[in-house]
Amino acid sequence: MIGLNHYILVSAALFSLGLICVLIRKNAVNVLMGVELILNAANINLVAFSRFSAANLNGQLFAIFVIVIAAAEAAVALAIVLSMYRLLKSVNLDRADILKG
Amino acid sequence: MENSLTIQILFYSFALITVASACLVVFARSLIYSAFGLLFAFFGVAALYVLLGADFLAATQMIIYVGGILVLLLFGVMLTHKLYDMKLTSELFQFWPAAILMLGLFATIATALLKTHWFRGKIEAPEPTTAAIGNLFLGEYILPFEIASIFLLIALIGAAMIIRRKPE
């Protein structure tokens, strides 16, 4: 039977994949994709606990707020990435070290 | 009905689609492949929401993630590369330490979550959730709802301010 544990495992796998994407990629846009994966993993957990553990809708509402924050985060982060590209002509995160003393 | 064979097959296929597409996002050499992997990962997560009885959330996921955030990320891919350089590669960096860290993290999370005895409530048959979510948004959650709208406005103005060309 499909229970809470199955959803938790899918969510843990998505979280680990998102984290490794943030760690091993050098391209800033690709790092943002990893962040989206991490937020989706958190959302699956919220909805699964809302269904199996709490039996009310609060978890789904939290998931909707997470989606709102993900949209705002994507907009602001892409603005930062584009201005970094305009400044450095590159989106390689290793090049973004001009604050280094 | 909840645990019938159909539900199991659906769950395993959508979970497989989600995790395999997430692997494509992480390990693909080309940024375009990563973006399309992300598309299918979002589809899979939306299908998992449907299996969890969250119909409104699944529709929201499809509209905002697939229609909004993914298009935004594709704009980011296209605007940060010269168009004649269509390889759009993104190199991997310190792969093996990160892979070991990922596997350890996954094992830790999985054992911790599976060994915990969660409180199990009564599981009811899934019902349409849209009306209830609307009532909660305009009732109990009115303050976070308004704060979220202000937050979105601030984020959009801030993004426009960051990206704007400074007048000489």
Could you walk me through the main structural features you see in this protein, from its secondary elements to its overall organization?
The complex is a heterodimer of chains A (about 100) and B (about 170). With about 100 residues, chain A is mainly alpha-helical. Chain A has helices at about 5-25, 30-55, 60-90. In chain A, helix 1 (about 5-25) runs antiparallel to helix 2 and helix 2 (about 30-55) packs antiparallel against helix 3. The longest helix of chain A has about 30 residues, at about 60-90. Chain B has about 170 residues and is mainly α. Chain B has one domain (about 5-165): Four Helix Bundle (Hemerythrin (Met), subunit A). Chain B contains 6 helices and no strands. In chain B, helix 1 packs antiparallel against helix 2 and helix 2 runs antiparallel to helix 3 (about 55-80). Chain B is globular, with a radius of gyration of 21 Å. At the A-B interface, helix 1, helix 2 and helix 3 of A face helix 1, helix 2, helix 3, helix 4 and helix 5 of B.
Can you tell me the CATH class of chain A? Mainly Alpha
Biggest sheet of chain B: strands, sense, closure? none
Mean residue pLDDT of chain A:
88
The biggest sheet of chain A, with number of strands, parallel, antiparallel or mixed sense and barrel status, is:
none
Quantity of strands of chain B, as a count: 0
Morphology of chain B: globular
CATH class of chain B: Mainly Alpha
CATH topology of chain A: Helix Hairpins
Quick one: which chains have the greatest interface? A-B, 69 and 81 residues
Beta-strand residue percentage of chain B:
under 5%
CATH superfamily of chain B: NADH-ubiquinone/plastoquinone oxidoreductase chain 6, subunit NuoJ
Count all strands of chain A and give the number. Answer: 0
**Residue-averaged pLDDT of chain B:** 86
CATH architecture of chain A: Orthogonal Bundle
Beta fraction of the residues of chain A?
under 5%
* SS summary, helix count of chain A: 3
Number of domains of chain B: 1
* Uncertain runs of chain B: none
Question: How many domains would you count in the coordinates of chain A?
Answer: 1
User: Kindly, what is the distance between the CA atoms of the first and last residues of chain B, rounded to a whole number of angstroms?
Assistant: 67 Å
